[in-house]
Amino acid sequence: MYTLFQNIALVTMDPEKPLLQNAFLGISDRKIAWIGTAPPPERPDLVVNGQNKVALPGFFNTHTHLAMGVFRGFADEYDLDTWLREHIWPAEAKLTYEAVRAANTLSLAEGIAAGTVSFTDMYFGEPGLAELCLSVGVMGNLSNGATCFSEQYVPQQDRAWRETIELADHYHNREGLIKADVGLHAEYTSNPQVWQVVAALAAERGLNMHVHLSETRPEHDNCVKKYGMTPTALLDSYGIFGTRTTAAHGVFVTEQDMELLRARDVTVAHDPSGNLKLASGVMNLPRLRQKGVRVALATDSACATNTNEMYYDLKLTAILHSGLAGDPTLVSAADSLQMATVAGAYAQGREAESGMLRVGFDADLQVLDLDKPHLLPCHDLISNIVYAARPSDVCMTLCKGKTLYKEGEWLTLDIERAKREMVEIAVKTIRE
């Protein structure tokens, strides 16, 4: 099947061909087969009119807890520690796998409709999420974050360990969609035995690592007090950053931490809205970038940010840090878009085939309708996308060349069933 978009604007994120107007975009099966201002030599099977539309890479949401969408609005306006220990964790204990699947489905639908093509998720029930991603046709880097609140850690008795092994054995690299990651919830929810075990597993299997890191001041300071090292330095000493790692938050990393993160090629997942809402602080994004640390974007969970769509954080990233520093050039719209696409693909280990529009890459993309009052006039495509676009402007989302969402319709999942089951299964479970 050869599909040709014609007369479409392209924001490719490819430095060789960054912006094209009145262009042609050809997709053959799952791959991008043509990009240019002239039509391809091949005759397409389907022609799509791209007038007043722009195609750009789909977003990579590099830190999520999709099933926690069931807690959207459940416990707002608390600090992280109170929020987790007094509200979220007790309610989570009631969740069943059926409830998790119901919440996952609606969260995926929300993200897909807003142009997201891949999620880096940490939660339980991840083999079920892998099956769901395969069914829907969306990408996922999936992990269950290991925790241990006792002195002795027995991997075989840990659900996170068992799920990680299942993901690695049965789902890793399935259909180019699923990657099994090794998850460590955080330094403060585990111990050195856990760190040794998960680091060894990641190294042995060649799997990416996903971890929360220095999210709050108490977390960071308590680690220094207990171990005499920052969370970054401590976890590094146990090999946690030995494979490609996504570290969520990094709000309180030190200068020395930043140098270590750069040396280990760690990507820091930035979700400014979640950190602000929980009053955890603001990551020093400008300094991280100056130090050469890669930063990608994320939404965290919908109970922290109340959303699974990335457009809000895309804009917030571009304006927050510039505003705090009093320098409007500090983080540009293009910088923010790069974090949501190219950097996210790298974080997930997908940079060789995704993250930009380039011939030979997978057709993982979104199409926006520019014919909207809030998007006119369009003097600068990237500025309009970052500062003015909304999730509702996304009219198509494709992953591996397959259309997942088009003009308000989800083509690979039953949205009415998903909405119904969120209420009748997931929400009912936590209220019982």
Mind explaining what this structure looks like?
This protein has two domains: 2-57 and 354-410, Urease, subunit C, domain 1, CATH 2.30.40; 59-347, TIM Barrel (Alpha-Beta Barrel). It is an alpha/beta fold and 432 residues long. The strands form three sheets. Strands 1, 2, 3, 4, 5, 16, 17, 18 and 19 form a nine-stranded mixed β-sheet that branches. The chain has a six-stranded parallel β-sheet with strand order 9-11-12-13-14-15. It has a four-stranded parallel β-sheet with strand order 6-7-8-10. The longest helix has 17 residues, at 97-113. It contains 15 helices and 19 strands. 54% of the residues are buried.
Topology:
Layout: E1 2-11, E2 19-28, E3 31-36, E4 46-49, E5 53-57, E6 59-64, H1 80-92, H2 97-113, E7 116-122, H3 126-136, E8 139-143, E9 145-146, H4 159-170, E10 178-180, E11 182-184, H5 192-205, E12 209-213, H6 217-227, H7 231-237, E13 245-249, H8 255-263, E14 267-270, H9 272-277, H10 285-290, E15 294-297, H11 311-325, H12 333-340, H13 342-347, E16 365-369, H14 381-388, E17 394-399, E18 402-406, E19 409-410, H15 415-431
Parallel strand pairs: 1-4, 1-5, 6-7, 7-8, 8-10, 9-11, 11-12, 12-13, 13-14, 14-15
Antiparallel strand pairs: 1-2, 2-3, 5-16, 16-17, 17-18, 18-19
